[in-house]
Amino acid sequence: MTGQPHARAIPLLYAARGLRGFGDGFAAIVLPAYLSTIGFSPAAIGIVVTASLLGTALFTLGVGLIAPRFDLRSLMLAGALLMVLTGLAFPNFQHIASVVFVAFVGTVNPSSGDLGVLVPLEHAMLARGVADTARTRAFAHYSLVGALSMAAGALAAGAPDFLPLAGIGRLAAFKTMFYAYAGLGAASALLYLRLPHARAEEKPHAPLGPSRGIVYRLAALFSLDAFAGGFVVQSMLALWLFERFGLSVSAASLFFFWTSTLSAFSYPVAAWLARRIGLVNTMVFTHIPSSLLLILAAFSSNLYVVLALLLARAALSQMDVPTRTSYVMAVVTPAERAAAASVTAVPRSLASSISPSLAGLLLNSTFIGLPFVLCGTLKIAYDLALLFSFRRIKPPEEATASRAAG
């Protein structure tokens, strides 16, 4: 049942999502540029990105499994503290072993999606504060805030190109960005302190119970989608643009600002579309065209054509984000929500942690667009499998509408 304290938490969760999104927006672009500046090769950068995604997966899984037994607010505060420590640590290590370790245990998100230890916690608390009929719209707003803040963060990633004008060296400028990331973690902690205490709505015997089969099937499919997406996570896509076209950091930041903006405004459209054709259909039939656009970009040698194709893709590729989250929250019991969010989110980090290192190697191949082709092809396979497996499993609001129509 929706409780009033949890409803009051929704604006705070939106605000915290905005702060994290801003940090993720510039960190995903600054990270490969910073590592290139200190002498890392594309293959080494791919390894760092892989370590980041792998660590995110393992920590997210652990948090999701223990969340039903602990206060959500306390776990969120611990996650914000980890964000602070990550921002303080990155600028002070340059040996690859140290950088890989910080990437593994830290919170820097090298992708354009919402990954990390705080995600299942925020999802579980957000789902408590809304009714079934408003759930998808609430997650669309949550995703909208995240995407717009990531767009602003991507624009801010161009700061290292301009800070030298103020007498700050390029390396020092990159380090300043990481310290700003730590500051955003501290600000998030202040917001989490105002949240109500929230423990499991009912004490589970295990993190996952009656919905275990559905969650595991979804997790298996999401792992395929995540593995595919790992070939073009934002840090690797930025590196591809640097290597393929010699794009500057400031130009890349402007491009990613617009991709994030287009993604942001696709979320309310996704919620509107889901009310008409259903959550699963919205996920599938917006995802397939975006994959085709990505494959086309792989074969173009014109920078402007490539950017246009990638911008069009951005307007479609993330419409499955609020719908996917809403669907997972809808088809499990309330007590399973945190664990379900974790178990279905983890493959998006774990499986995608493998592909950036492969993408780094493929960037040295004769066909530099091969990561795009692999990503698009695998994502289409995932979409078709999702449609076949889950088209008949309806969330409560769709099942009610179907019975009323019948």
Distance between the termini: 27 Å
For this structure, what is the CATH class?
Mainly Alpha
* Main sheet properties: none
Q: Order of helices and strands, N to C? A: HHHHHHHHHHHHHHHHH
Q: Name the beta content range.
A: under 5%
Counting copies of identical and different chains, the oligomeric state is single chain
CATH superfamily membership:
MFS general substrate transporter like domains
Please tell me how large the radius of gyration is: 20 Å
Number of helices: 17
Q: What form results from the Cα inertia axes? A: globular
Query: Could you estimate the helical fraction of the residues in percent?
Result: over 70%
> Domains counted in the coordinates: how many?
1
- The number of E-state strands comes to 0
Topology-level CATH name:
Growth Hormone, Chain: A
| Structural classification | mainly alpha
Supply the CATH architecture. Up-down Bundle
Average pLDDT taken over every residue: 84
List segments where confidence is low: pLDDT < 50 over at least 5 consecutive residues.
none
Please sum up the structure shown.
With 406 residues, the protein is an all-alpha fold. Helix content is 75%, strand content 0%.
Observed structural traits:
0% strand, 17 helices, mainly alpha, 406 residues, single chain, 75% helix
Describe the structure.
The chain is mainly alpha-helical and 406 residues long. It has one domain: MFS general substrate transporter like domains (Growth Hormone, Chain: A, Up-down Bundle), CATH 1.20.1250. It is built from 17 helices and no strands. The longest helix is centred in the first third of the chain and has 34 residues.
